[in-house]
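Class prep. Protein, please:
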Amino acid sequence: MITGPAGVGKSTLCWEMGAMLAEAGIAHVAIESDELDRVFPKPGAEELTPLAPGARDVSQLNLAALWGTYRALGHSRLIMSGVMLHVGFDKQWMLAAIPQARITVVRLRAGEESLIERLDRRETGAGRDAQIERSLRQARRLADEATGDFIVVETDGRSPAELAGEVLGKAGWLPVS
């Protein structure tokens, strides 16, 4: 699980990790958690219960469906990214979707100046300032949170390839280079 504030480089890291794993011939799946519940109107418990009693979120159902297909194809590694402000809760719905999963949490960090610079390149239009403020709030909140057994990776001044090599090495998916 690759997590951190918006603009920290989660998607870029996942793409680089995927490229490195593919180059090494290691089967894997990459999923951005935002795509698991990008639906309107968002279904509530009453719509989900007939599909899966106890399901709390459509993300859980969609992850289970996708993983079922990928697992049947022989995959055993999943890279998933998202802001994940409530890691304990997020791990619960992921484990409900993939009961046998061993989840490694990777928290990406960047300084506020770096976040603003990255978001400034990415965000345009009326929502730009609101997204920057939201990301800075996320970064401040996450900086104060205990990281326990997380892999914490500082991203400032580092290339995606360097970050991917570190994460894949610490996760035990590729030798540390």
